[in-house]
Give the backbone structure.
Amino acid sequence: MTIGTAPPPDVTVPVAAPPEPRRRPAVPPPGLVLSWLLVLLVVAWAVFPGLFTAHGPYAGDPALSFAPPSWEHPFGADQLGRDLFSRAVHGAGTTLTATLVAVLVAFGAGTVIGLAAGYAGGALDTTVMRVVDVLLSIPSLLLAMVIVSVLGYSTYNVALAVGIASIASFARVMRAETIRVTHTDYVEAAHGLGVSRWGVVAGHVLPNALGPVLALAALEFGTAVIAVASLGFLGYGAPPPEPEWGLLVAEGRDFVALYPWISLLPGTVLALVVIATHRISTSLRPNR
Amino acid sequence: MSTPAAAPLLRVDGLTVTYTTGRHRTATAVQEAGVTVEAGEFVTVVGESGSGKTTLIHGALGLLPANARITAGTIAFSGVDVTRWSEKRLAGVRGNYVGYVPQDPGTSLNPVKRVGVQVFEAVQLNTPPSARLSRTEQAGRARESLRRAGLTDVDRVYDQYPHELSGGMKQRVLIAIALAGEPKLLVADEPTSALDVTVQKVILDHLAGLRRELGLGILLVTHDLGIAVDRSDRVVVMEQGRVAEQGPVERIVRRPRSAYTARLLAAAPARHVGRLLPADVGANPGAVPEVPDGTAVEVRGVTKTYRVGHGERRAELRALDGVDLTVRRGRTHAIVGESGAGKSTLARILVGTVRPDGGEVRLHGRDLLALSAKQWRELRRDLQFVYQNPYSSLDPRFTVRRLVGEPLRAFGAGRRERADRVGEILARVGLGREFLDRTPARLSGGQRQRVAIARALALEPEVLVLDEAVSALDVSVQAQILQLLVDLQARLGLTYVFITHDLGVVRLVADDVTVMRAGAVVESGPVQRVFAEPAHDYTRRLLAAVPGERIGQEVA
C-alpha cells in the first residue's frame, strides 16, 4: 500500500515537525577552508622553499645535534644537526612533484584505456578489463615496489610506479562512465548527424564521461602522497641526503624513543596533507 | 465516521501547497485550488505538466513529500474536516475510505513479492481486528478484489510476480490493492498514461464499470483532455497551480469560460477533422503547395530478430517480420502501432543504426544495405532522424549554437558559414538569436524539440524520420510542433516518416499510414481511407480506443 510521509498541515498540530530538508550552506565549512589553506601552504613550500626557512636543508651544525623544537628550529634538528623544518619544506617539492606525476600517469593512461575499452566493447573490452581486474587484485603498494625494483631506485621511478599501480581504478571508472554515455540518445544522435567517430568520442563521450574520473583523481592524490612517501620510507625513492618526506620519517626511526620529533613532526605534516586532500576531494565529488 | 447525507465524499477548498526548494526559498505548486467528488460521481482533474494536478491530489490524501506543506485550505471527507489530522490518523482512512491508484504500474509494485501477497497485505491492513477474519477468509477477499479489478485468471495471477504480468495487468493489480479496503472513493493518478491505447480503453471502461456496480466516487488525474471529456461527469482544469475552471463536461466543451481551456480544446487532436494546413496556406486556401511525385523510401520484406537471454533461457525475439513500406516523396507517412509493434526498430533500420537480417531498404532508389560506412555518412545529408525525448537527445554540455552547428561542422562548414546558417535555421523553427548561447537545461520541452528539429534540418535533408517526436510534449506544445512540421514540409518539400502510437496525431499530419502489430504490417494506405473504412479488425479496435470522441462530437 502507499504510505505517505506528509507533514502536519498546520504548525498548531502537536506532532513532531518533519525533518528540515538538508540545505547547502552558503559559507564553506571551516574544515574545508583549513584543508585548502594547508594544501596551498604546502604547495607554496614546494615552489618557494626559500621564503619559509632561512636554513639550508643539507647544512648540518654539530652543535645542534638532536636539538628539540624551538622558535629558531620549529621542528628541531636531526643527529647531524640539520634543521628539520627546512628539510620538510624543501622535501615538499620532491614529494608533491612525484605525487603529481603519479596521478597524471594514472589519470592519463586510465582514461585512455577505459575510454577505448568502453567505447569499442567486444574482445578489446574483455581482454583489457581482465588485465585491469588482475592489476586490481594485487595490492598497489606491492605492485609499485615490484615496478620500482625493475626500473631502478629514484624519485621519478617511484612516481611512475605509483602511477602505473593505480591505472586500474581509473580505467574501471572511465569504462563504466564511457559505457553509460555511449548509450545515451545524444551520442547516437551525433552519429546520425554524420559526425565522425573520433568527433563523437572527443566531442560528446569524453567530456560527459570525465566528471567522476576527475573526482577520483582528487581522491587519488591523497593516496598517492602516502604511496610515494611509503616507498621513500622503504628506501626505494630519493637517496639519503635528499629531503623527501618518507625518507625524513625513516631517518628518525632509530631515535624515536629518545628524540621522537625527528620522525613525528615530518610525519604529522604528511598525515595532515593526506587528510586535507581527502577532505577537498569529497567536496569536489558530484552529489549523486 | 458520521456521514451527513448531503456531504460530498471529498471536498477540498482553497488548498495551497508550497514546496521548500532551498534555503529560504519556496515554490507554490498549488494555489487556492479546490475539487469536490460526490458519491458515485466521476470527476477528472486535467492539466499539463507542472499544473499542480498531482500535488493537489497528494495534498488531499496526505501523501505529500516531506518538503511540501499545506499552507491554507480545508480538506473534508464526507463532511468531516481532516485538514489537521495527523499522518497516522489519515493513514487509517486511506485504503478503507479512499483507495489510491498510483501512476506507474511498472514501479509501483514490489518486484520481489508475489502479486497475491501484496493484495493480501492490503486486505489485512484494512480489516479491523474486530472482524476476526481468518487468513483464508482474507485471502478470499484478496482474490475477490483481484476479480473485481477485472483480472480473469485470478488463481494463476495470485501466485505470479509483477515481472510476469503485462503493464495492463499490473495496473489492474494496483486497482485491486486500492479496492481491497472496499473504499467509497477511488483516486487514480494518470493510471493509463504508461499503457497502450487499447489497454487504456479497457482499464478506463473497467473504472467506469466499478462506479456503476459499486457506486464508487472516482477522481481521475490525467493530462489527456480527451479522456477527461469522454469519461467524466465533471472536469477540473488546472493551470499553473490554479483551477482555471471547473464544471460539467458538456458546458466546458461547448462554452469554455477560461481562455486556457479553450486553447487546450483547440489543441486536442480530436478537434480537428482533417489534416493540418501550412500556416501560410491556411490563410489562403487553394494555394496548396505542389508535391513532387515518386517514391522516397521503399522497404521490402525487412526482417530483424533479436537474441535475448543466455544459455538455457536463450530465445529469439522477432522484432520485424517481412515488413513492406512505401513512402511517397514530399508526403508524411505515419507508422502507428502499440508497444512491441516494431515501429522503432523499423525507424532505426531506415536511418542505419540497426542492420536488418534480411530484406531491402531503398532511398530514392539507392540500396541502403549495400552502403559502406563512408557512404552512409554522406547519406546523412539526405536522411535525418528526430528522437522522441528532447531531454536525452541533446548533449547537456552543448549550447544551442554548437548543437545546431554540429552537423554543419561535421561536413566541413567554416566558422563564419556556420554562424550564418545556424541563425537562419533557428529562425526557421521559430527560435530567435537569444537562444544561441543557452544550454538544453535552460530550454523548455517544446524549445528543445525545436532545437532537435533545427539540428536535423541543418544539412537540408529530404527525408526526416521522426520517432514519437511529439509524444513527450504537452498537448498545447505538441500542437505547435505539429504545425511547425507541417509548415516546414510545405516550404522545404520534406518527406516525413512519422512514427507514433497516437492515432489522433496521425490524422493531423499524415497523408499515408501503415498500421503495425507484433512486427508485421497489418494495414497500409491513405489516412482518409484507413480511418474511414479500416480493412483490418485490429485497426478498427485501435481507432475505437482513441480517447476524445466527445470532444470531436461536440464540435460537429
In short: The first helix of chain B runs from residue 53 to 61. The radius of gyration of chain B is 26 Å. Chain B has a mean pLDDT of 84. Chain B touches chain A through 55 residues (CB under 8 Å).
